Amino acid sequence: MFTGLIEEIGKVQKVQPIGGGQKFTIEAKKIFEDLKIDDSVAINGVCQTVTEINRNSFSFVAVEETLLKTTLSDLRTGSAVNLERALRPIDRMGGHIVQGHVDCIGIITKIERLATAVLLWIQFPKEFEKYVVRTGSICIDGVSLTTARIQSNVFMVSIIPHTLEKTILKEYTIGTKVNLEFDIIGKYVEKILGSSLGSSSILEQFKDQPEW
Description:
This protein is mainly β. 15% of the residues lie in helices and 38% in strands.
C-alpha cells in the first residue's frame, strides 16, 4: 500500500525483454535507505516487486498483463519515473490509500499554466466515470491528487509548484499517457451495495424513486 507522495524521481537504466514481459532496471538514490529484494515499489503508480538490487539501481519484471494495462510498456532507457516505497504502519498518511493497482490509462488533453499552479485536463475511458467525484482523490502516475473539475469523462487537477518539482508531472505534454488509479473506497462500496441489491449498478435501483 502507498500514499501517493513521491519520494524521488528515478531513471530507467535498462529495459530487457523476458518472454512476453520486460525486465526494468531503475537508477535511484533515496529509496535505497532500506530497500530489500521482495519489497514493493510503485513505479509511476504501478506496484512492482524488487527482484535485484545493485549499488545504485534495482530491477523488477513487469509481466504481460501489467504491460497491457499500464504505461510501463512505453518506458525506454533514460525515461524518468516517479518512485515510492510501500507505506510503513508508522508513517503519516499524507496522501490517500493507493494500492498501485492501475485501473486504466488516461491521456493529457489540455495544460493550463497559471501564475502559480498548472492545470492538467485528463481524459479517461467512460466506463470509469462513476469513480471520479469532484474534490475526490485520484492517483496519477503514482501521485496523490485532488480532482477540481469534471466534464463527463474528463477531469482537471491543479498542481502546486512543489509537486511539479518533485515528480515527472512537469514533463507532461498534450497527448502524454498516464496511469490512473481511482479511490479504492468507492470501488468497494459499489461492490458491496451492488451485491446486496442484486445489481452491478447501484443507481439503477433508485432511478425510479420519487426524489429522482
